[in-house]
Amino acid sequence: MITKGKSISLMLAAVLSLAPLAACSGGKDNASSPVPAASAGGSPAASAAASGEKDTITALLPPVSANFQKKFEQMAKDFNALYPNLTLKIEPASWEDMTQKLDTQVNAGSPPDIAFIGSDGISKYVQQGMLMDITSLADAKMVSDFDPGPLEYMKNGKSLYGFPAYMEAHAIGGNREFLEAAGIDWKKVQQSGWTYEEFREAIKKGVVKDGNATKRYGFVFATSGVASKDYLSILVKNAGMPSPFTKDLKYAYTSKNYLGVLKAVREMIDDGSMPKELGSIDAGKRWNMFLTGQTMITGKGLATFENSAKTNNGKIDAKDGSAVKDSIKVDYIVLPVPSFLGQPAVSSTVVDGYVTFRGKKEPTAEHKANVVKAAYFLASGKVAAETNSELFVAHISKTGAEAAKSITISRSPENEAAVKVLLSHAAPARPDIPVELGAKATKLENEVIIPKMQALLAGEIKPEDMHKAITEAAVKAFGDTGIVKD
């Protein structure tokens, strides 16, 4: 699932090799007990016993957080304690092979019952007919446990295909010392945001030169590898395009505002605020540049990066050789992406979760119900509390939030408040976009936008050239009346 929804966990995969995350829990054994996925008929154990037959539910799960996979055995035990006749069989996967493993099983017609994927991957598997619609299977207690916004991301059309694990906002991150040296009121920016013009002036002030050489850039964003889609998709949401499609399903990226963002991308490179070799910087390199003081602001940023920076700071203090080479101590500051062209700020969000699959053979009604119990167990209560606390992401289930009360984490209150502001204007879910349109947009992104973006970053084409190529491809894909003309 190498899509924009892989967002938080894929980015972590790139960062973990440089600055491993450490759990900030005050003791995982002190966390609340799993909250039962009770049905209206009584306690989960009673319901399970009443159902009779033993059953095994399979799940393919990547390293969602640093310690997630270490807890698989305990998760299985806890689930079996709730449902004595049910077994949760978890297959671990790395982020590198998660997509391949899942697709291999899907193509063979025997996918796992549950897989942890980005919500933006749901339409792909719906199109293949391999997802299990749980709309009528998830009881009211399960559904009402989740915040409505994140839950919408797990839908395609009106059908629900799983439960969300977290909802995280994509931000950018600053080095507090450098921000303050540049005279940037970061606390004000966290709460009130900033325009592109304000942001551009700020990052200019963050540049440090040594003769003709740049020792520190104002802003660095990963634009290579798994992050190749991120930069534009995050920026354009703040330019009046929260989705590739308008509410009346016209393709939005033919708008003049999209061209305005492309021009801004070149401006920040041409004035020296960003590296000329930006197109070759992947997620790992840009995090390394941030920790070694080569940039004032980095992107994309996630709340959990505060934890990563603190972990590396601790290694520096302890003179631990596993600290990032030549790194400095960093006080990580969550910052919003600037808004463009007078448009309101709209946060790019990622919602990953536990998606329910079915094989070519129709599962029994009993097995379907059991899969739903397992998916809910993983997305709520103790499992959600421990995972989300480790990731520094907001709790989106009531049971997860309750279980998290016994978990202590060390987190900047300013950063926590900043993330709440970002989530308050998160891009809404768009389950109304037909699968066919979404597939065409993804094809256009992969075949036109990403290659042209690399050419733009390299200075090989102008913003106008890229916008023209996108428009021409969009007309072919969606028709002359299916695109925005402004």
Automatic annotation (TrEMBL):
Highest taxon above the source species? Bacteria
Annotated protein name in UniProt: ABC transporter substrate-binding protein
Q: What is the lineage of its organism?
A: Bacteria, Bacillati, Bacillota, Bacilli, Bacillales
